[in-house]
Structures are given as C-alpha cells and as structure tokens.
Write a structure and sequence with these properties.
Blueprint: H1 8-26, E1 34-36, E2 46-48, E3 50-54, E4 57-61, E5 68-70, H2 85-100, H3 122-134
Antiparallel strand pairs: 1-2, 3-4, 4-5
Helix pairs in contact: 1-2, 1-3
C-alpha cells in the first residue's frame, strides 16, 4: 500500500524554501517573524522563526520563545506563538505547503498589493512576493 505522505526529501526542500521566505519577511520593514537575539537589544543579530523536521514530524520554532510547536496536525492558535493571529494563519499556510506542496494564490495571504494589512511598504511587499514565487509558495 502506497503512503499518502510526500517523500521526506521533498518536504525538506519545502522546509528550506519556507525558511528562506521567513528570513525575507523578517528582513524588511516591520521584520515580522524575526527578533533580536537578546530580544530588546537592537544591536544584536536577528534570529528568525523556522520550521524543522524531527523524526518525520513538522515543528515550528518561534523566534522569540525558541520553543518548538508541533505542527504535523493543523493546530489551533498556540500560546507558545509570540505573534498575532494573522501571522499564525500564515504559519499554518506554510505548514500546509510544507506537508502537501500545494501553491497558494497571492490573495490568500495577508500581504495583498492593495490591502497591505501588514504595513509593509509596497517595494518590500513586492520583494517578499517575488521570493514567495521563487520558492514555490505562491502561484
């Protein structure tokens, strides 16, 4: 009987792609999904949230608390997550992409060109969208 899950290597590639996208999001404007390593000391380097695969299971490591959140089953909002509901929703979209490989429409994330709920400048948003397309997250 053939498994419905994707081969591990494909997932690892998607994890690397999503982590690269998280770094891009965390490198511009409001720097969501990133934090200074000493939290409030802006002279410290940025650390980024990330996904990891441990024993075949998907985990999200929050940039602020550095606590792993089990993501293999689609979780509800988790108290270990240090950002708000909109970013939690995006993290869950990343989770879905990692596990099933399905690309998203640009309108399905909260960084739409005309409805920039994140408060990123248009130029920064376009860089993020370009990275999302490059890594295969967006159509």
């Amino acid at each position: 009987m053939q498994s419905k899950t994707k081969p591990l290597m494909e997932r690892e590639e998607r994890i690397a792609a999503v982590n690269a996208l998280i770094v891009t999001i965390g490198s511009y404007d409001r720097k969501f999904l990133s934090s200074h390593s000493d939290n409030w000391r802006t002279d410290r380097p940025l650390v980024y949230s990330r996904f990891e695969l441990r024993s075949g299971r998907l985990w999200y490591i929050d940039k602020y608390k550095e606590v792993p959140i089990y993501m293999h089953n689609r979780p509800t909002h988790n108290w270990r997550f240090s950002d708000g509901g909109t970013l939690w929703w995006l993290i869950c979209e990343f989770r879905d992409f990692i596990l099933d490989g399905g690309k998203k429409d640009r309108s399905s994330i909260f960084l739409a060109a005309n409805d920039n709920y994140w408060g990123y400048r248009k130029e920064s948003a376009e860089i993020i969208f370009a990275k999302a397309r490059e890594v295969g997250f967006l159509n």
